Amino acid sequence: MGIEKPAPLLMNEVLKNSQSHTWEKAIAEWEVSGQDEDFESLSVCVCGKTGLRYKYIITNTMTRTQLHPIGSECIRHFGSQNMVDTVEYLRKITELRKRNLGSITFQEIKDAGILSRKFITALYEKGLFQPNKFNRNDGKNDFQFYLNMFNSRSMSDKQRKKADVLTRELRKLV
Ligand SMILES: [Zn+2]
Question: What per-residue confidence (pLDDT) applies to 32?
């Protein structure tokens, strides 16, 4: 991923709050640490861009200084796949929060485009699939099952039930 020069205002703020003095080095000090949604889209990015709906918080990993709100476009200027992935992850978590997770179904979030191989893997890493007697005490079996169901065109009733039970575990995570 190439590094494009960001808006001067963002660059100033980032450099002011980094230990490194060049943009190319400073960007490596930052990570995406949170997201918020402004339903009225009245927020203004650190770079000056108006009309932000999804506002991100970035944190300097060396000093713990935070900068916000930052729009997703500005986050792309950091040239970090990790930061782009976190933006995508948080965006999906935000979508999930709007749903009734107590009665949510696997098919519902699949059809909504929330599921992807990357997202399911991230959920696994965050501990969605806990070891229990149904997965022979290894959450990885459920993770594999969930991925298979994501890739599959059809499910048996039994598979659907299991996929729904696992999907409702999301309420513990989001
Ligand atoms: Zn911006």
Answer: 97
